[in-house]
Write a structure and sequence with these properties.
The chain is an all-alpha fold and 111 residues long. The chain contains 5 helices and no strands. Helix 1 crosses helix 5 and helix 3 packs across helix 4. The radius of gyration is 14 Å and the shape is globular. The termini are close together. 20% of the residues are buried.
């Protein structure tokens, strides 16, 4: 695997792990919604994931990652339309979609 591809995959994986670390075992939406620092930290990690994925797809568009267009779109929304971020949508992405992305990235890194 090309070094740059591996780096972007690792950056995505590391950001997912950071989000998991920020949340810990207490995954409570009410706590998330009240904690501005936590929300901003998770949003920043999602930005990194989207940017790394965008760069990755430019290097090798054949790499299969589910919902990559939506992930990149989320990154763009967070950066360019920060005042329209819906905490419930971000929470749903983190809880429902991030675990699947983590598995996909782990599989790609282990190839």
């Amino acid at each position: 695997m090309e070094h740059k591809i591996a780096k972007y995959l690792f950056d995505i994986f590391e950001s997912i792990q950071s989000i998991e670390s920020y949340l810990g075992n207490n995954r409570d939406y009410n706590e998330y919604s009240k904690n501005k620092l936590l929300r901003r930290g998770i949003e920043r990690e999602l930005e990194i994931i989207g940017e790394a994925l965008s760069s990755l797809k430019k290097l090798d568009n054949s790499i299969e990652i589910s919902f990559y267009k939506q992930i990149i779109g989320l990154r763009n929304q967070i950066i360019h339309s920060y005042d329209n971020i819906d905490d419930e949508i971000i929470w749903g992405i983190v809880i429902r979609h991030l675990p699947k992305l983590k598995i996909e990235i782990e599989n790609l890194l282990n190839k």
